[in-house]
Design goal:
Elements lengths: L12 E3 L2 E3 L6 E5 L7 H13 L4 E5 L6 H9 L6 E4 L4 H9 L4 E3 L8 H14 L3 E6 L5 H7 L4 H16 L6 E6 L3 H14 L4 E3 L7 H17 L5 E3 L6 H14 L8 E5 L10 H13 L7 E6 L5 H4 L5 E6 L2 E6 L2 E7 L3 H14 L2
Parallel strand pairs: 3-4, 3-10, 4-5, 5-6, 6-7, 7-8, 8-9, 9-10, 11-12, 12-13
Antiparallel strand pairs: 1-2, 13-14, 14-15
Helix pairs in contact: 3-4, 5-6, 6-7, 7-8, 8-9, 10-12
The structure holds iron/sulfur cluster.
Iron/sulfur cluster binds next to helix 11.
Length: 361
């Protein structure tokens, strides 16, 4: 039985057809990196993200003309909720709302006069569009920076709550807060502070995490630590890579903590040692590859273990697994050996058993 973190209670924010908050599964976001004026290319990337399991897609909307892309995406039936990333210009926020955007990311303290804030809050309220307040080390207000002297976790948290207050003044509470930093410890602490101070859903991410293993690790530690504490309602892994890789990484983080809302196959495989009796590493690689093409309808745990001495026992939770012996392997389920299979057919046999499990009630 998989245990899950107890999530922090939050209010629920509706973003298009999707809910963000403790009452809903944790959603995965990413952001397009296409030219926002190129509706066709952006459409293709949004579709690819949706197919990869991305549940909210953010677009940079740098000017009024790019709001036309929102119209076009909506016109072509894009179902995944779209978020417009807007900086400073309240007129773009109003135009994005008119164009049918599902959520906007804007910091109300950066859009000028009270009148501008009121206009954005009112338009969003009328159209049921929530606002994400997005704080990072570079976005801090001068008065907050003066008070703390540096972008400390306390300073970031205070800034987020300051922006929320500006909206609350106009009875606007459909708010999601994100506090990001490239400093993982700072991001973790700032989110803890805000999580304790309000009930707005939290969008988690480590900004400028970089690429490759380090980008993944920073994100996994930052996002993962908070999720384990029950904080966080939607996540974006920011990688210097294709947005599709961000979705894959976010799915992996949620799976690791038992918070994925989608079925998947969890492969557990041993690290190999002097007792290993089969060529385990290529077997795992092949299995991984072949499982990509399988439609997964339920959560399964599949084990690939190097020896029968420890394999079936160590992987007793596996629905199906193999453990290496000399020239062959034993096939086991929940620790019990079912039969022996030749080393040559290992992956075929395993795939066949996985298919049977997926098709069974
Ligand atoms: S399962 Fe067997 S081969 Fe694999 S690490 Fe453990 S003892 Fe070694």
């Amino acid at each position: 039985m998989e245990s899950q973190p107890i999530r922090r209670q939050t209010r629920t924010v509706q973003v298009g057809s999707l809910k963000i908050g403790a009452a809903a599964p944790i959603s995965i976001q990413s952001m397009t990196n296409t030219d926002p004026h190129d509706a066709e290319t952006t459409y293709r990337q949004v579709k690819a993200l949706e197919e990869a399991g991305c549940e909210i897609v953010r677009l940079a909307i740098p000017d009024l003309i790019s709001c036309d892309t929102i119209y076009r995406l909506k016109e072509r039936g894009i179902a995944v909720p779209l978020v417009a990333d807007i900086h400073f210009d309240y007129r773009i926020a109003l135009a994005a709302v008119e164009a049918g955007i599902d959520k906007i990311r804007i910091n109300p303290g950066n859009i000028g006069s009270e009148e501008h804030i009121r206009a954005v809050a009112k338009a969003c309220q009328t159209h049921g569009v929530p606002i994400r307040i997005g704080i990072n080390s570079g976005s801090l207000e001068k008065h907050i920076l003066r008070k703390y002297g540096a972008p400390t976790p306390q300073a970031l948290a205070e800034s987020a709550l300051y922006h929320a207050k500006l909206l609350e003044k106009y009875d606007f509470t459909d708010i999601v807060i994100s506090i990001k930093s490239s400093n993982v410890l700072c991001m973790i602490e700032a989110n803890r502070i805000v999580g304790a101070a309000c009930d707005y859903p939290l969008h988690l991410g480590v900004t400028e995490a970089g690429r490759g293993d380090m980008g993944l690790l920073k994100s996994a530690i930052g996002i993962g630590t908070l999720l384990c504490e029950g904080l966080g309602d939607t996540v974006r892994v920011s990688l210097t890579d294709s947005p599709l890789e961000e979705v894959k990484a976010a799915q992996a983080i949620l799976r690791t903590i038992g918070l994925s809302s989608r079925p998947y196959i969890d492969i557990i495989s041993c690290p190999t040692c002097g007792r290993t009796k089969i060529d385990l590493i290529p077997i795992c690689e092949e299995l991984d590859k072949r499982l990509q093409g399988i439609s997964v309808t339920k959560k399964l745990t599949v084990a690939v273990m190097g020896c029968v001495v420890n394999g079936p026992g160590e992987a007793a939770q596996a629905d199906i697994g193999i453990a290496g012996a000399v020239g062959e392997a034993v096939l086991f389920s929940h620790g019990k050996i079912i039969r022996r299979v030749s080393e040559k057919n290992l992956v075929d046999e395993l795939i066949c058993e996985i298919q049977k499990l997926l098709e069974s009630e």
